[in-house]
Amino acid sequence: MGKNKALIEVEGIPIIERIYALFKRLFQEVWIITDQQELFAGLDAKFHGDLIPNLGAIGGLYTGLVLASFPHSFCVACDMPFLREPLIDYLLRQRGGFAAVVPRTSDGWQPLHAVYSKTCIKPIEELLAQKKTKIIDVYPMISLRVVEEDEFRTLDPLNESFLNINTPGDLALVQARRRS
User: Fold this and answer.
1) pLDDT tens profile 80-131
2) CA distance linking residue 23 with residue 160, whole number of Å
3) How far apart are CA 35 and CA 53, in angstroms?
4) Engineered SS bond to 145: which of 22, 101, 131, 171, CB 3.0-4.6 Å?
């Protein structure tokens, strides 16, 4: 994208600010896991770099879980501009005794729009010791609540919560879709 995806503006607002505004309303604690804290100085969040660098998404998830003050965390990627509060609330209500609550859409798993508990820390460490860095590889190792698309369709009928902005083409598509 040529710059940090969290700073890309969608409808005139940087994605990270959209996410942060929602999370500030919903949660007592908001962590932003980044090695570029200076880019987000205007946000009143807690910041930390990856505890284990260069692991990608699983490194951020691991760091967030280790640092979190609460037993469960809702974890998202920084490039998801259209998160829906009702869907987040639904996922949080499903956590029960599960180590993770993860939506699955027709596009597949949504590991960075999910609820994880601190009980995932040890299994993630085991994965990393095996040089595995895909979040979904931890799922067989934990108690998992899979939330299928038909279960949450009414909360986000267009599955906009799961839209990622990864390329200029994605951004153009999202902008065109929002205009129509």
Assistant:
1) 999 999 999 999 999 999 999 999 999 999 999 999 999 999 999 999 999 9
2) 17
3) 9
4) 101
Q: Which residues lie below 8 Å from residue 81, measured CB to CB, with a gap of 6+?
A: 10, 11, 15, 18, 19, 163, 165, 174
pLDDT confidence tier of residue 170, bands split at 50, 70 and 90: confident
pLDDT of residue 2: 65
- Domain 5-179 top-level CATH class: alpha beta
- For residues 16 and 7, give the distance between their C-alpha atoms in angstroms, rounded to a whole number: 6
Collect contacts of 172-178 with beta carbons under 8 A, ≥24 apart. 174/10, 174/81, 175/10, 178/10, 178/11
Distances (CA, A) of 177 to 12, 44, 158: 15, 31, 11
Helices vs strands, H then E, count in the chain:
6, 9
Radius of gyration of the chain (CA): 16
